[in-house]
Structures are given as C-alpha cells and as structure tokens.
Amino acid sequence: MSLLILATILAVGVVRIQAGCPSIQSDSLTGVEGRWYKVYSNIEYPTVKCAYGDISKSGDTYTTNVNIKFDNGESMTVDSTIKKESDGKYYDEWENDDGITQHDITLLKVDGDFLLSWICVDFGDGVIKENAAIHSRNKQTSNAIKEKFSNWLTSKGAQGGTFYESRTDGC
C-alpha cells in the first residue's frame, strides 16, 4: 500500500543515484484491503497530524484512497491504482501535481495488523526516490515490527529503512 507514501512522495524523500529501483516484489496482496493508519515513515512530517488510506480490490486491481490532515486545518486526498504486471511486480499509477500519470514500482507486505508500503519513483538518469511507511489497522505502534521491516528492506537493497513515528492525534 504505497497509498500513504504516495501522498508523501510529493514532499521531500530519500533520493539517491543508482542504476534504478531495487528489485523488490510483493509476495501476495492478501489481507491488504481495509483502512490503514500511517504510524511510521522514513520521512518526518511534523505538520501532518493524520494520514490514513483505504484499500479496496476489484478483480486484479487494487484502488487506494489516501487522506492526509495537516495542523493548519487543510487536508488532501490522493487516489491511485495498484496492479500486477507481466514482470511479476506491482505498479502504482497516480497523478502528480502537474497532472502527469506516474507509473512506479511498489510493494505491500502485511504482517498481522501492520502493513509495510514502499514505492520507488524513477526520475531517469539514475535518480530515484524511495519512500517507505508502516501502517496499522488500529493506530498501534511496535518497535519490533519497525525493526523487522527496516531489516527486511535493507536486506532487499532498499534505502530509507530508518523509520520515524508518525502522528495519529488528528485521526
């Protein structure tokens, strides 16, 4: 569920120079449907008081609806579509601020009541942005799950495995 990171991708992210995005694949998307609250992110967002997303499935396609609430009373919504392609990887399609449709590799990994979402945006010329977040069905945090997902991402060659706690006081 890159859904919650999808919106945060519009802000500052982890950028590095390399040949492309790491080769990371989702195993199965079983259990991703429902509402998820962002409880950790690899990027700190002090002005976001709540970020949550709803994932639904229709056939082979998953749709996400992300809602973000800010301290100043403003909010934003981002919708996207996630689909598995012939290379066996899942891709997230969403529209950026310029009205351009992005098509980026994504990963969703469920562990109990927690969901790891990761998205890698390839800007070309070896410049990519990786964003990762951990979501909870019930706004609970867990240092054990944070460490587990961080280690898993690192083992797959991804950057940005350091997670910061996200606010849920505005949810």
Question: Topology, please?
Answer:
Layout: H1 3-8, E1 14-17, E2 34-41, E3 48-58, E4 61-70, E5 75-84, E6 90-95, E7 101-111, E8 114-124, E9 127-136, H2 143-155, E10 164-165
Antiparallel strand pairs: 1-9, 2-3, 2-9, 2-10, 3-4, 4-5, 5-6, 6-7, 7-8, 8-9
Signal peptide: 1-19
Keywords: Signal
Organism: Hemiscolopendra marginata
Overview of the structural elements:
This protein is mainly beta. It has a single domain, classed as Beta Barrel (Lipocalin), CATH 2.40.128.20. Helix content is 11%, strand content 49%. It has two helices and ten strands. An eight-stranded antiparallel β-barrel has the order 2-3-4-5-6-7-8-9. The longest helix is centred in the last third of the chain and has 13 residues, at 143-155. 40% of the residues are buried. Residues 3-18 have low confidence and may be disordered.
From the structure above, extract its key features.
171 residues; mainly beta; Lipocalin; eight-stranded antiparallel barrel; 49% strand; disordered N terminus; Calycin; Venom protein; signal
A few lines on this structure:
This is Venom protein. It comes from Hemiscolopendra marginata. This protein is 11% helix and 49% strand.
